Amino acid sequence: MYFQLLLFLFVAILLMIWVKWVERQSITSLGFFQKRKAFKEIAKSWGFGSLIISLSFALTYLFGGVYFTDMDFSLLIILYVLSLIPFWFIQSGTEELLTRGWLLPLLNRRFNLALAVGVSSGLFGLMHLLNAHVTFYSILCIILSGIVMTLYALKRDNIWGVSGLHVA
């Protein structure tokens, strides 16, 4: 699993090389390197995303949509999950880099904003086709959340916040 997650880092580096040497654009154009307080932006959005996930899980549990058959909260399991968090930042940050940092402005320059939002969010959904237990409904929800996150990225003028939200 760690190797698969590290592949995302390789993709991110390749994209930055592409932008710098082929498109001859500054890497700052990708939306990661704006001079806002990046750590604060990530922390706020990760916290908000974690709250949303926790609330939706709690409500699903309370209404009988999910139940526990066995739970293992051993130290080993907790350490394993904690060890994955940096890799989740790499994975989700790379997806945001591709769809909202690179593709969105590229399409917006060549066509228009509505098409750019639709296509980049559609690609964001397609990137999740290999998720476990994927359905038409789950992909549709991912595309719609992609649209919302795109609007958030446009409002904040960077992709730090959506990257933190995506990690959650």
UniProtKB/TrEMBL annotation:
GO terms for biological process: CAAX-box protein maturation; proteolysis. GO terms for molecular function: endopeptidase activity. This is CAAX amino terminal protease family protein. The chain crosses the membrane at residues 6-22, 43-67, 73-90, 111-130, 136-154. Belongs to the UPF0177 family. Residues 80-167 form the CAAX prenyl protease 2/Lysostaphin resistance protein A-like domain. It holds the Pfam family Rce1-like. Keywords: Hydrolase, Membrane, Protease, Transmembrane, Transmembrane helix.
